[in-house]
Structures are given as structure tokens and as C-alpha cells.
Amino acid sequence: VPLGDDPLPLFGKHVLITAGPTHEPIDPVRYIANRSSGKQGFAIAAAAAQAGARVTLIAGPVHLPTPPGVERIDVESALEMAAAVDGALPADVAVMVAAVADWRVARSADQKLKKQGDDTVPPLELTENPDILAGLAHGLRRPPLVVGFAAETQDVIRYAQAKRIRKGADWIVANDVSGDVMGGDANTVHIVTADDVISLPEMPKGDVARVLVERIADALAE
Ligand code: CTP
Ligand code: CA
What we know:
Blueprint: E1 14-19, E2 23-27, E3 30-33, H1 39-50, E4 54-59, E5 70-74, H2 78-88, E6 93-96, E7 103-105, E8 126-128, H3 132-137, E9 145-152, H4 156-167, E10 171-176, E11 186-187, E12 189-192, E13 197-199, E14 203-204, H5 205-221
Parallel strand pairs: 1-4, 1-6, 4-5, 6-9, 9-10
Antiparallel strand pairs: 2-3, 7-8, 10-12, 11-14, 12-13
Helix pairs in contact: 1-5
Function: Catalyzes two sequential steps in the biosynthesis of coenzyme A. In the first step cysteine is conjugated to 4'-phosphopantothenate to form 4-phosphopantothenoylcysteine. In the second step the latter compound is decarboxylated to form 4'-phosphopantotheine.
Protein name: Coenzyme A biosynthesis bifunctional protein CoaBC
Organism: Novosphingobium guangzhouense
């Protein structure tokens, strides 16, 4: 995918990216998590760095190498991710690709929970995590361009349009995960903006990243 005539269209820009899942502790040895390989977010970080940006990649627990030229901050939980995003501001563009766990355990245990020897199970009370994307998009230090992701299994574009407005994002990259996307190397996405929907054919995650970075560079140049 060509990047136009400027080889470094994001030179001088700070790109903030979240990627991967979050792990929400139940006790020191157990957690609840979302399914996410982190591949798409890492590919966007790599493409942004190749386009000349300063890139801060806030990564949940994944097994991926850090792309060249990217500053990576590893986190575990949604609360840690939210704090790391806050600490990385200001940014020219934020791309929130992370599959953040919507809930955490209200009171995680300091010691490993033990089976009781009868049929009782631990009551796990959940509480909602902060919405990092919405907090950023509605916050005082909002980056000029805020891009969210949305993995959907049905009504992909309609749900993405609603999410874009609800969360205050400029764009939502809607990810059709009805097929075999999770953990795979290809992706089918629709870039949903205020005015239109750009549907890309299925392509490798690296190509999705390059198309998105090119569009981000165009938007920042306007
Ligand atoms: N997101 C976030 N913080 C959260 C939850 C989601 O920053 N606590 C971001 C994701 O990184 C993504 C976007 O919000 O960019 C959409 O996430 P998604 O899970 O699709 O949205 P939800 O509002 O949680 O809706 P759903 O009920 O479909 O999970
Ligand atoms: Ca969610």
C-alpha cells in the first residue's frame, strides 16, 4: 500500500495506541480477560513508526515483539491501562485498539482462593471498568483525532456508528469478527466516520494498519 509521495507523513506527530487484552485479577493466580492477540494494534504501531511518528504503545499482556522505533508500556489491567494513557498525553492521535475487559472483580483477593471442600463457589462481584476511549474523547486533553475499534459479530456498521457517537470518537474501525479473525493474521474492517463508511476488503493486518495510518496522516494534514 503506497504512502503517497511523503515517505514520513507522520513525522513530528505523537501517536498513542492501546493494544491487546487486559487481565483483571480475581486473586494472585487467576484473572478474567478478553480474547485478543494484540496483532492489529501492534501492526498499527509499526506502521505509524514507519511513517515517522513518535509512537507510544500501551500494551496489555500479549506475546509479541515490540516494533522498531516504538516506545512500549506494558500493563495488565484496565485501570493500569487508563493511567498509562493519561500519562502518555498529549498526543496528536489516539488509536484505541485494546480489547479492554468491561468488568473487573470488585474486590480481588490478596491470597489465592481455595476450594472449600464442599460445593460452594466463590461469589465474584463485578464492577464496571472506566471506558478509556470515552474518557479520552470527552476529556480536557483530547487528541485532535481519536480513533476507536469495535469488534462486532452482527450489524457491524450500525453498532459502530452508534459507538462512534456514544464514545465521542472521530472514527470507529469496525471489525467484523463473525469469521475466523481472533488471533488470525487477516482482518475485514470498515472505517466509520461522521460522513461515510469506508469498507476495506479482507486483507492482512499489516495492510489494514498501513491503510489506516495513511488516512490518519491525511486527516492530520487537513
Ligand atoms: N474501550 C475502552 N475502554 C473500555 C472499553 C472499551 O477504551 N473500558 C475501547 C476499545 O479499546 C475500543 C472501543 O472502546 O476502541 C470499543 O470497545 P467495545 O468493547 O467494542 O465497546 P463497548 O462500549 O465496551 O461495547 P460492548 O458492549 O459491545 O463491549
Ligand atoms: Ca467491551
